[in-house]
Amino acid sequence: KYSITNLNSGQVFLKSIENFFIYDIIVCERNIEFMKTDKKEIILNATEKLLLNISDNDLSMSMIAKEAGIAKGGIYYHFKSKEEVLYAVIKRAYSKAIREYLENMNSDIAAIDKLRTLFHSLLKKEFRDEKKNLLIALHINENPLLHNYLKLVAIEEISPILEKILIQGKEEGIIDLKVSPSETSEMIIAVLSFLLDGNIFNTEKSDNKLTLFSKVLDLCLGAEPGTFSFISE
Fold first, then answer.
1. What is the chain written as a DSSP string?
2. What is the pLDDT of residue 135?
3. What band does 16 get if pLDDT is binned at 50, 70 and 90?
4. Do the beta carbons of residue 169 and residue 175 sit within 8 Å?
5. Does the first or last residue of the chain, that is N or C, have fewer Cβ atoms within 10 Å of its Cβ?
6. Whole-model pTM?
């Protein structure tokens, strides 16, 4: 016969076992997630290292796997193709430079000053600083695929920053934005990337285009004439 005390002890024991397994499952899930993140970074680090010595055309998934010290199948678990790996490498490098830019941006400054700083950074190709992004400097101009990847990353990463500044600018009354800030920001960055593309235009003769671009922004964003003239300075 079982006493109430024995039953309670048994329940406590079973509850302890249950809690142990729940804790074990949680820990395992966290470890799996950590391993996923860690391996992804290892793959990207290995790719960057290889690209410092070889071109992306010579790069293969087998080489990345060997450099990363993981099975080739492990790479395909995270990335579907070599192109996807390259895109992730460029996105990470570009994102790092943008984070540094944001850290140096004072949130209290006026929207017009934020716009001036952002556009000057883009025009000077600060986000492609060779010292910060050696990988991009080595390969981006010689490869059309990577070149296009960089444009996509620029739109993805910089547009949200510009969107917030445009919203602030509307609140401060320097622009009269009547369409979606998100779509406007994407369009501005896409057009600017196109104008600054040395494979399409002679960037040494881009002053006239940038002057026209600044006037287009004044008109389209409902700003006073000359508000965006700093773009061509």
1. ---HHHHHHHHHHHHHHHHHHHHHHHHHHHHHHHHHHHHHHHHHHHHHHHHTTS-TTT--HHHHHHHHTS-HHHHHHH-SSHHHHHHHHHHHHHHHHHHHHHHTS-TTS-HHHHHHHHHHHHHTTGGG-TTT-HHHHHHTTT-HHHHHHHHHHHHHHHHHHHHHHHHHHHHHTS----S-HHHHHHHHHHHHHHHT-TTTS-GGG-HHHHHHHHHHHHHHTTPPTTTTGGGG-
2. 47
3. low
4. yes
5. N
6. 0.66
